[in-house]
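**Protein record**
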Amino acid sequence: MNHQPSTETSARETAAEIEQAAADWLARIDRAPLSAQESEELRQWAEADPRRAGAYARAMAVDLHLDRVSALGDDFPAAQDIPANPMRRRLMVAGVGAIAASAVGFGGFALLRRGDGADAATLATAKGATRDVALQEGSRITLNTMTQLRPALTSDLRRIDLLEGEALFDVAKDAARPFIVHVGDLSVRAVGTSFSVRRTGPDALRLLVTEGVVEVKRKDDVLGQVHAGIEFTVDAAASPVITMLDAGQMSGAMAWRQGRIDLQGLTLGQAAAEFSRYSDTTITLADPSIAGLHISGIYATGDPAGFARDAALSLGLTCTQHGQDLVISRP
């Protein structure tokens, strides 16, 4: 049975209900062109709650990625084939344009472009979105929220410039064609392995190796060989910090691939900052003394309100909402 998209606003609407509604809208668009009235209903639905815009963007990102990635050239095939449906694509893009003009959280949605001349392609995601890109040589890149990177593939080198954000790299083995991720003056080199890199500053990164070994360098200086199960952080002003992670910690660190945030080991202040990467809804701590309180739990990246209310409840605090601002304070 087909779900009918809802345009009603409910204070009790859960993240799962929003995701379902976003999927229903896409299914509706896939079946037939939207009428003017239906397009207006879609716009109003997305405007009514910033979580809806994020959910709709995530749902659309998969299909739009598959459509658009082929425009990047032979080195960027889609991860899987989908039936051609030009009408759907046109309507989906039109829908994005209409919503982007008004809905919070849609700005810069799913930017994917190819530069002219010598410029390399740039892959990007909007806030709250993730994207999976398959390279023809066998490697895969998964972009997390608000990420920009620029791949440059040649016959003897696979170079990725991570300009912003975080990405997971599943690298196909090719000893004659090194795979190197650059973050400012830092670089991470792999031959055949899996690792994620988060750019934390102009010349700073957080590296997680899930398989194999990578080499980290600052310009020509080797900073270390990093093995699977290790978190490696470094910036321009300090020595590298190495942390061993168990399987559970590694899984939690990569939870963003499933659209979740694992808060294990984080403080309330760190968690609020983490949610700000995925949503335009802000979480403000009215009292700095509560920022260091520890919390736990796993939440959807697009549900900062659910997290803020749960955190306040579990810590004996209060949570009030003013528009898109959530304020946690002592009672």
